[in-house]
Amino acid sequence: MANNPKAKALKIVYIVILVLTSIITIYPLLYTVSIAFSPKGSLAQGIVPFSTGISLKNFNKLIYDYPFFNSVKNTLIVSVGVVLLTIICCTLAAYVFSRFKFPMKKAMMLSILVLQIFPTFIGMQAVYVIVQRLGGHDKLWALILIYASANIPYNTWLIKSYLDTIPLALDEAARIDGANHFKVFGTIILPMLKPMIVFLAITTFTGPWLDFIYPRLILKQNNFTLGPMLLNLLGTGSGTASDFPAFAAGALIVAVPFITIFLIGQNAMVTGLGAGAVKG
């Protein structure tokens, strides 16, 4: 087998395909990084990345000429708010559906599952009208409510599936000792939900980080989050000129914490996905 010419040729073909695929995948990313560090401050450079040198000019321009830090602040407020609201609502709802029996329980769970089938963008017009009626136009709390409400159906099912694997005997033993439902939830259930909570925090935090559709619908330009602010650097905003090098610098800055969160929390994500898939 080792001396088979066909096997060797096939192996070479596989290697060539993998190398070409890697180049096609990595080259655009590397080129974007080179534009971010380009001293020319434009797209006028060769096809070879970093051929014009390295400079922090585009990063300085992004920070001092555009409302970058204000957008970062707004995005952090929205992302942290979504994480907190989603964790509170999903863990409590999942605990109720997993541990209590009440009328219409199956119908309610089925309705939550059906809601997940439809993408949130279908109801954008209705969402906009509701936000306007509630006085949430150009308000960050409106974005927090929109993102959290979109996260609740799927994540409630995910955590409920994990709670179903935890024996009811633990709850019953705690109640025999005089614990009420809130104490059982706080002292027994929450510690066991730690992997799921970490997983939920990571996935819900990264959701609003680069979204530009709803922020552009709800917020005004001086109150944008990162997504629409960076998108405006491509010349898509009203009266704005294209500045792709500054956009590349902003995309690079935004990607660093994004990637770091995934690298740090990848074990929790794998654990959370595996635990949530144990029982449906």
Label this structure with key terms.
280 residues; mainly alpha
Brief account:
The chain is built from twelve helices and no strands. By secondary structure, the chain is mostly helical.
How would the blueprint of this fold be written?
Elements lengths: L4 H32 L20 H9 L2 H32 L5 H11 L8 H10 L6 H24 L4 H9 L4 H12 L1 H13 L6 H6 L7 H7 L11 H33 L4
Helix pairs in contact: 1-12, 2-12, 3-6, 3-9, 9-12
What does this structure look like?
The chain has twelve helices and no strands. With 280 residues, the chain is an all-alpha fold. The chain is globular.
What amount of the residues lies in strands? under 5%
Note the run of SSEs as H and E.
Answer: HHHHHHHHHHHH
Model regions low in confidence, pLDDT < 50 over at least 5 residues: 276-280
What is the 3D shape?
globular
